[in-house]
Design a protein that fits this description.
With 659 residues, the chain is an alpha+beta fold. Helices cover 31% and strands 23% of the residues. The termini are far apart.
Length: 659
């Protein structure tokens, strides 16, 4: 058994007896400190690791519609306890693969711990491991329920099963089916254990488990909203009694749902989703197909959203990451990202060399400023989704063979990040080769990477995907290249231990424990999550000079990109918290800006096109939140398109857009 260090070194003598730091609680209750066990899926170590977890009745003494930073960390610990990715994979292992989550509940004083049959057998395409337990607190019972959130193996292929929406009310069909299994399991548990009276349901999930929990909580909210007796006439439960926390959950809800309320309706204010914008997993299934999450997203802060507090915030993250990271040989690279470009001498070379860490073939892209993995990932997925076609196109052409490929790669003891990175890089490399005329197929790349034959179905699918990737390359070459080069860093943001470091950093229990006995210079601070990671986005076509000022024509200049009649533009200034870039097309250029939403900006534009009379279009995509008098209604705005006419070589316009 291995300890992360937090239990053994810093917290051995700490006793917490009150929760006065959390103003949401109606009264003080004892906080107990225990440990939770987990087995990371990417470390290749048969031993379990463990870290501290704090628990208190006070977590459930306020409505679930109020966010609780302490309950959030305990919820992540519950989800991580389901991760058992390493083992001998014999019959005995499968029967006991839920031992960590069972210990989690037992250590916190829960009883009647039960798992479903899927948690006792080999994972298949449509299994979903589930575990439940209960604990009585005076006049109510808390039931904890969590789906398997790691070590999925072949179960992981179900993530590809979007479906056309006809069998899932437009939601992701694979996770929708899993969510209904979860609800049925809890209903059976309540009946079997004879639970009556007031019940509070505590749900959690990480990654795929988070998507399942997210949909399950939303379905339960709607059932209760319609007056259904979800758990029978003897059980009293309301929407405010469902405490749902998800972590790095992909998007399984859909804006086109018909039988339930829309994903951002105030009905779902009891669902909390903790998301790292630098992680690409929460960006799928893609928003271009209408996918999103139910409830409220709370975001890990980063340099783009909090440039002033970034250094202090990352001190907190780094402190906890050094404790929770179970592989010291893997450095902390989660923030590593820069926009990369191709030099002219790459033409004709072996493109695989681009992905070498010491390769000089890829250069920094000086046409982009302050782009991060969040911006580049969103742009890339947007372009790629357009090239893949509609959701029905995906289901018809790609879904089944892609599921088959994932079943091949998710063999027992396979580590999730390794095959996914290998597949992605093989496809990207093949797309570059295709564009550059090298012609090395995905088949030869995959055989060389893995040293085995995966069958023609796998290779045919990869070749099908290469075409839309190659098309994406022509529109977004540097985004595709940059994501491929920094894929290790991006995947680290989906590492559960990295997520734990962020979530612990917003929890005063962990921060106070870390700071105990340290000098003021060595102490860290609590890093609250941010409530909105939307950003304003503007696209401009048909000219090549732009300036962005905040608030007025004479306000603070935040971005200045100067264009020229001949030659590429120059980014003179791009302040932290803003991003700008351009794409040169000789006499015309396309530019894009990214900035905080809910602000008023003034844009100055100059045309350098040789066309005597032409139209310049500017397009802004943004989202913002508007609250009604009750403070509960969320209103989302989609986009704004405008156009302006230029009638001279250097005609200038000032345009004001409120985001």
């Amino acid at each position: 058994m291995k300890c992360t260090g937090l239990a053994a070194v810093m917290l051995a003598s700490i006793t917490i007896s009150s929760v006065g730091t959390l103003q949401l609680h109606a009264a003080n209750y004892e906080v107990t400190k225990s440990v939770f066990h987990y087995n990371p899926i990417d470390k290749g170590d048969a031993d379990d690791f463990y870290a501290d977890v704090y628990f208190s009745r006070s977590y459930f003494e306020h409505p679930s519609t109020q966010y609780d930073s302490h309950l959030a960390t305990a919820s992540l610990a519950m989800a991580m306890s389901t991760i058992t990715g390493v083992g001998p994979f014999d019959d005995a292992w499968y029967l006991n693969q839920s031992h960590n989550i069972q210990s989690f509940f037992t250590n916190l004083g829960f009883n009647n711990v039960e798992t479903n049959d899927d948690y006792k057998a080999t994972m298949t395409f449509d299994t979903i491991g589930l575990c439940a337990a209960k604990k009585e607190f005076g006049d109510y019972t808390v039931i904890g329920i969590v789906p398997r959130s790691g070590g999925y193996h072949r179960e992981w292929a179900n993530n590809m099963h979007l479906g056309d929406g006809s069998k899932s009310d437009y939601m992701h069909e694979g996770w929708y089916n899993a969510a209904n299994k979860l609800i049925s399991f809890v209903q059976g548990y309540v009946s079997e254990k004879g639970v009556t009276g007031k019940v509070k349901l505590w749900m959690s999930g990480f990654s795929r488990g988070g998507a399942t929990a997210n949909i399950a909580a939303a379905l339960l909210d709607n059932k209760l909203d319609k007056g259904e007796k979800v758990f029978g006439n003897s059980v009293n439960i309301s929407r405010e009694d469902i405490y749902a926390y998800t972590f790095e959950a992909p998007q399984g809800a859909n804006v086109n749902v018909q039988t339930i309320k829309k994903p951002k309706d105030s009905l779902y204010s009891n669902i909390w989703n903790i998301v790292n914008p630098l992680d690409i997993v929460p960006k799928v299934a893609m928003k271009e197909y209408g996918f999103t999450r139910f409830g409220t997203d709370k975001y890990v802060t980063n340099k783009f959203y909090d440039p002033n507090g970034y250094e202090a915030n990352r001190r907190t993250y780094n402190a906890f990451f050094s404790i929770f990271n179970q592989n010291p040989a893997v450095p902390n690279i989660a923030d590593d990202f820069r926009m990369m470009g191709l030099s002219i001498n790459v033409i004709g070379m072996i493109v695989d060399a681009i992905f070498s860490s010491d390769s000089s073939a890829a250069l920094y892209d000086d046409t982009k400023s302050n782009y991060d993995a969040n911006i580049a990932g969103a742009i890339l997925l947007e372009e790629l989704t357009g090239n893949l076609g509609s959701r029905s196109d995906y289901v018809r052409k790609i879904q089944t063979p892609l599921e088959s490929v994932m079943l091949l790669f998710m063999y027992e003891n396979a580590q999730i990040d390794s095959p996914m990175k290998s597949i992605f890089r093989a496809m990207v490399s093949s797309a570059f080769d295709s564009a550059l005329g090298n012609g090395k197929s995905a088949k030869s790349k995959m055989q060389g990477e893995w040293g085995k034959d995966f069958g023609e179905e796998a290779y045919n699918l990869l070749d099908v995907l290469i075409d839309p990737l190659a098309s994406t390359y022509w529109e977004r070459p540097n985004e595709l290249l940059s994501i491929a080069i920094y894929i290790d860093a991006i995947f680290q943001n989906h590492n559960p231990e990295a997520v734990l470091a962020h979530v612990a950093g917003q929890d005063s229990y962990y921060v106070d424990a870390y700071n105990q006995g340290k000098s003021s210079s060595d102490k860290i601070q609590v890093v609250p999550l941010i409530d909105n990671a939307d950003y304003g986005r503007m696209k401009f076509f048909g000219y090549n000079d732009i300036g962005l000022r905040l608030d007025s024509k004479k306000g603070t200049r935040v971005i200045n990109i100067e264009g020229f009649t001949l030659g590429k533009s120059v980014i003179h200034d791009c302040q932290p918290g803003y991003a700008g870039g351009y794409y040169s097309y000789i006499t015309e250029e396309k530019m894009e800006l990214f900035m905080p939403a809910n602000r008023k900006y003034n844009i100055s534009m100059k045309s350098y096109s040789k066309k005597p009379y032409h139209r310049c279009e500017y397009w802004a995509y943004y989202e913002y939140i508007s609250l009604d008098n009750s403070g509960r209604t969320r209103v989302e705005k989609d986009h704004k398109k405008e156009k302006a006419w230029f009638n001279s070589d250097r005609h200038k316009r000032d345009v004001t857009i409120r985001l």
